[in-house]
Amino acid sequence: MTEKLLDAPRRVLAGVLGLLALGVVMFAVTMADGPPRPLPVDARADEFSAARALGHLGRFATEPRPIGSAASARTRDYLVERLRAEGFGVQVQRAVGASSGAGLAAFGRVENVVATLPGSDPTGTIMLAAHYDSAAMGPGASDDGAAVAAILETARALRERGPLRNDLVLLLSDGEEDGVLGAEAFVREHPLGRARGVLLNFEARGAGGPMLMFETTRNNARLVSVFADAAPRPHGDSSMVELYRMLPNNTDFTPLSEAGFRGMNFAWIQRGSHYHTATDSIGNLDRGSLQHQGATMLALTRTLGNTDLTDLDGQGDATYFRLPGVMVTYPGALVPVLTVLSVLAFGGLVAAVRKRRLASLPRMLIAAVSAVLPLLLAAILAQVLWSVLAGVRPDYDTMGGLLHRPVPYRAAVAALTVLALSLWYVPLRRRLGPAALAVGALAWPTGLGVLLTWAAPGAAFLCTLPALACALGGLGAVLLPRGRFAALMLGLVVPGLLLPAWAQAAFDGMGLALAGVPALALALFGLTLLPLAELVLPERRAALAVPSALALAVALAVTGMTVETYDQTRPRRTHLAYVMNADSGTAHWVSGDADPGSWTRRYVSGHDQGGLPPGYARNLRWTGPAQPMRAAEPRVQIVSRDGDLLRLRVRAGRGARSVTLRFDRPITEASAAVPGSRPARVAVDGTRPKTWPGEVRFRGLPAGGASISVRVPGGRRLTATAETTGLTTVPGFVPPPRDLVPSTREDGDLTAVTRTYNLR
User: Fold this and answer.
1) In this structure, how many other beta carbons lie within 10 angstroms of the beta carbon of residue 552?
2) Residues 26-49, mean pLDDT to the nearest whole number
3) Domain 50-331 top-level CATH class
4) Percentage of the chain surpassing pLDDT 90?
5) I need a surface site. Which of 17, 462, 489, 530 has the fewest CB within 10 A?
6) Rounded to whole angstroms, how far apart are CA atoms 593 and 466?
7) pLDDT for 158-173, tens place per residue?
8) pTM across the whole model
9) Where in the chain is the domain with CATH 3.40.630.10?
10) Helix pair 287-305, 50-60: axis angle to 10 deg
């Protein structure tokens, strides 16, 4: 029993037409995912206009504005002025924010802009949140200036239709880039931080693409329903919610939701090569993405602002995803039902194939077990491709796999996926038969659907629905007297709509450095296509699939290397810092680049880290001698020591924005305060890797310094580092060429001056 699941007259033509039809479906999904046309300055007054929002963005997103900088202060003043002009009550909350990580306590003096507008008959509070600080490496036009400008334009448009029913709070937070410090201080100290309303938080991880709803609080069914009904062109899917809940990443949404806010988190993720770099500029911002962001913000605020917010509780989590032109949603209770139906349909297909003597049960079982091989091989080959690319082009690794022109490489991953499938399918085709392989392969989306239903129900649709549709299509292909090919094609439409689109989103969000993840989705899609692939793959020529796929992958990779060039709009990155030891009077250049380019090699020439200050080195690869200079020095005064508890007075020195304290023993807790603020305290677990094990940071340190208390059992020494953004004041420094920008590492593009203190 080694028959085909489906045969057809003119089978090659039918197979080619079927593949073309699926290509059209996938193209339709891609086209439907584009952002809308931006509206001009003279758009209707009650509409959101990207052009009007850009007018605000041009006032503050032309230079970096990290926490504590002069640019940050100018931005704060502009926001206060504009929101007061729109009739909002505005307050600047000044506080110390805090966060912790492995061996790390991070603090910062934040200045949150909090604006309020009372509702006419409130049932609760709506909060719009975005952060106005940027990473130190760039102007942050997308992250998160666009959302801040969109809030200003939304605030204006809301006034055109009279007051909302519910209270409205606008939180423009500070210090998000340094550990969500502003949001943490807001929920800890501000009365509105405990209002427990409905939160809409807006972020960015790139410079364009549709605005995705990628995170929600739990029991999101009613919120998802509002989103699907009210938002123009709603985008996103519940698998992102499940994935994000598993990751250590966070945004301002994290402390706000932990404080009791229900809500949704939004971001765009395309064109990620600009993220946290000097090219996150207004010129590189997609205007259509800004329009989509603002139109979504305005529509949801109006809808929720006039909704009885007490009706949004409960009902569990919903599954949601986008098909061309429509957002599909269904309740969580339906997830196990669909999973059971997919298992029953798969069982029915197995029985029908066995009864028609197209394949035996042992052959289908062997096919099912062996089908794990192409899934694993596709992921492995994708990661091998990345390793080869990063080895040949080390600057790709510096970019974290988020390249400027990644399309040829993504196509190469798809070709390698075809190679993995062919290496499994071609040898087993004659031994087990096409029908056994097609049915056995379908066991994987069915089984993964069962697993996801238990572990991550919001993501189960990615496997359950393709498995159900393909099993039903296969039953039609086996049992129907007519229309067998049409039945098969209808079943394949569902995986064609879902799996390639998910792979595309994974490429956008994770980059080529984690190419194995989208490759796995593409391989799963490929397993569903086996009945169709069989039509276009004559047995006598099947072996050609392997060298053809390999040749195509190599050609696409070579093409990628050809087109991925650099210029001032698409620059390469480098890591470089100047480090001076104030105790010894020596200075060094340091770089974390794996293979520094010609400009960086002006400053670094070897790997000797022995001359660096105690506890400074962390993941550094290159060093070089530098000329000492007069610069801001950190000053640490040991006020008292009570057992393991150190009380310190810390100053950064004139012009320095931040101080980092590294301890030679792990720390277990830390607190910090500045004049006029309450102390902020965090517990600390773990140790810092590849450096001294305990670390305390204070970003945006005021000129008067800060009082810092640290519990450091057995601590004997600390090294204090005063950090000033930029290298232009360093003797002998020559600015980089215009096609080179600082990397996203937080310890790069810094002038760092250290001093070491004995604690005993």
Assistant:
1) 17
2) 86
3) alpha beta
4) 80
5) 17
6) 43
7) 999 889 999 999 999 9
8) 0.95
9) 50-331
10) 110
